[in-house]
Each structure stands twice: as C-alpha cells, then as structure tokens.
Design a protein that fits this description.
The chain is mainly β and 148 residues long. The protein has no helices and 7 strands. A 6-stranded antiparallel barrel has the order 1-3-4-5-6-7. The radius of gyration is 20 Å and the shape is elongated.
C-alpha cells in the first residue's frame, strides 16, 4: 500500500440537484440543468500494488488506485426562471444563468470522480430578488474528471 496526500483540482458537473420545497412549490424539486464547476480540495490517494504469476512463470504488476477528497467548488449553470420559481413574481419563462458554489466529498477511481455536493445558487440577473431558490441549499450528485 502507498498513500499520497495532495491538492486536488477537478472539473465537476452536478448530474442532478435536489432542492427542498420553497413556498408554493412542490415539496422537492429535481433539477438536471447544464452546469460546470472547478473543484479544489484535499485528496488522499491509496495505491495497492499486486503481483500475479502467470502460467509462464513471469510476474505481472497490477495497480489499484482509489482517492478520497473533500473541498470546494465554484461554477456556472442554468436554471428555470418562471412564475412558479418566482412565486408569480414574473410572467415570462426563461433559463437563467446561476453562479453555484459549495462543498463536495468525492471518491476517485483512477481519473474519474463521483460524489455528493452541498451547494447554493445565485441567479445572475434582475429577477434574483424574486427567485425562490436564491442562495438556498441543495444536495446533488457530482461527476468529475481529475486534472492533476
């Protein structure tokens, strides 16, 4: 076994967000809108090296790699902005741009990372005051690619 602590830098996407109910909306919302994030955290990698003997008598090396990381993410995404998500504060419907930020705990197998994030979104336009999810917490499933 080899253990290596390091700085972790990833590109993450939130596959889906679960938002608690807000005012007159359903008890829970599931969002799968576009988003992209940069993640920075502390990572611990564990390498397990095994040697197996083949029928010819030579040894073949096998390396299993797992990583565990916790850190912060920041990025942009889109969200539905409409009468339902603004408490009838607007009459139009559009996809708004959001700044998303939060914490994530991820598990890595080689370069692929998957985990859970807790985040907050801020709508980046004039309707942010009436958007019911402004800076409200959500929980999501994150998928990423390790950059280092």
């Amino acid at each position: 076994h080899f253990i290596k602590p390091s700085l972790d830098i990833d590109v993450l996407t939130i596959l889906f967000k679960v938002r608690p109910g807000a005012k007159n909306l359903l008890p829970m919302q599931l969002n799968t809108n576009f988003n992209g994030n940069i993640y920075v955290g502390h990572r611990t990698d564990i390498y397990k090296v095994h040697f197996t003997k083949n029928p010819l008598g030579t040894f073949k090396r096998q390396i299993n790699h797992f990583g565990f990381s916790g850190g912060f993410f920041l990025g942009i995404g889109s969200t539905a902005v409409n009468p339902s998500t603004t408490g009838n504060g607007i009459t139009t419907e559009y996809d708004g741009l959001v700044l998303q930020k939060g914490l994530a705990g991820i598990i890595a197998i080689n370069k692929l990372t998957i985990g859970v994030g807790l985040g907050f979104d801020n709508l980046l336009d004039r309707n942010n005051k009436s958007w019911l999810y402004e800076n409200k917490p959500w929980v999501g499933l994150v998928l990423g690619l390790n950059l280092n």
